């Protein structure tokens, strides 16, 4: 008997709790000794401790690689003077030979059109 | 696990379920999960009875702690991120008791549960431990990790409030008391 219970004063509460207790016991799952052996299906899957550390190191390595690649791209080009000259500039301007031809540039662009299509300005 | 411990756990199983049920606010499936995880802790020797308190007090403390862990997990699941993850994994949980469970519970038990739910958590815990589990106030204080004085205060206030709530909800109870 619980020493904190007053037999007369708390009878109403004890009865109410006893009723609840009976009801809960009826609905309690049956005792199964396997619960003390089988692992719980719903046990939390915890991440291993090394995983976040490995992820952080991998991220750092990846960032370093990207940074190094950018560095290589933006580094100054090697000395051009050491390379042979592939394209030497010519002495005369481009298409100079065309200008000095038979004066075809003076010919109107519609010279090949039939006469009826040629517009004659007054 | 020692045979003696297993026998003690078996003897306490129905009451342990009742306590898990109280810790989970009457949710049967969650109470079963909590109890299962508590058994797993005991089986894998993650919790060991040192003899500082009675076996029942120690075991109920383990169940209480496991229920709190489950509650924190549930709160995470109910957060926005948790809901999104549940959508992807299809792992959704309905905390409400099923219709079948509601029918199975008789009216007085339901009324009692509702009245306990209206009490402050500490008062409800002391009430359950003292009246339902037949522990002393001192044992309840040890289990709840509070001082004996606080436990007594919760006990007296809880009794008065619970009576009022039950009398309001049930004229039969008022007549009996």
From TrEMBL, chain A:
Protein name: Uncharacterized protein
Keyword Membrane: yes
Organism: Brevifollis gellanilyticus
Region annotation (Disordered) ranges: 1-32
Ranges that cross the membrane: 47-68
Biased composition regions of type Basic and acidic residues, renumbered to the chain: 1-27
UniProt entry keywords in alphabetical sequence: Membrane, Transmembrane, Transmembrane helix
Taxonomic superkingdom: Bacteria
UniProtKB/TrEMBL annotation, chain B:
Gene Ontology cellular component terms for the protein in this record: DNA-directed RNA polymerase complex
Top-level taxon of origin: Bacteria
InterPro entries for the chain: RNA_pol_sigma-70-like (IPR039425), RNA_pol_sigma-70_dom (IPR014284), RNA_pol_sigma70_r2 (IPR007627), RNA_pol_sigma70_r4 (IPR007630), RNA_pol_sigma_r2 (IPR013325), RNA_pol_sigma_r3/r4-like (IPR013324), WH-like_DNA-bd_sf (IPR036388)
CDD domains given in the database record: Sigma70_r4
GO MF, one example: sigma factor activity
Pfam families: Sigma70_r2, Sigma70_r4
Domain RNA polymerase sigma-70 region as annotated: residue spans: 10-75, 115-163
Keyword terms: DNA-binding, DNA-directed RNA polymerase, Sigma factor, Transcription, Transcription regulation
GO terms under biological process: DNA-templated transcription initiation
Family: Belongs to the sigma-70 factor family. ECF subfamily.
NCBIfam families cross-referenced by the UniProt entry: sigma70-ECF (TIGR02937)
Name of the protein this chain belongs to: DNA-directed RNA polymerase sigma-70 factor
The organism of origin for this protein: Brevifollis gellanilyticus
Recorded name of the encoding gene: rpoE_1
